[in-house]
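INTERNAL TRANSFER SHEET
From: sequence group
To: structure group
Subject: CidA/LrgA family protein

Please process the attached sequence and return the structure record in the designated field. Keep the field labels unchanged so the import script can parse them.
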Amino acid sequence: MLNYLTLIFICQLAGEAFVVAVGLPVPGPVMGMALLFAGLMIHGGIPEDLQKVGGALLANLSLLFVPAGTGIMVHLSLLTGDGIAVSVALVVSTVATIAVTGLLMQFLTARKGSAKSDAE
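Return from structure group:
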């Protein structure tokens, strides 16, 4: 399982390196997640041990937000001037995420349904 945890961190590092090298305005961990996803698509599935490692990380995800929450509380005075802009950005990004997720789910469900009907 340590190998898969290392794989996750290597993908994150590769994503950071790629973003810095190319200059993309995307967070490195997001690019690393895309690289991991591409590797899993090529592999054809998720290995069982990787599922266990990912599940353990997700089960303890709230612990990973403690440093960010602490930083917000410590530097709250820096955010007071930009509170409206941050709030608008949060609402817009949340609505956009829900919309994209819904559209993608509809597309993938329709695609899966058409693949089943083609097989019959």
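Handover comment: The radius of gyration is 19 Å. The mean pLDDT is 88.
Transfer complete.
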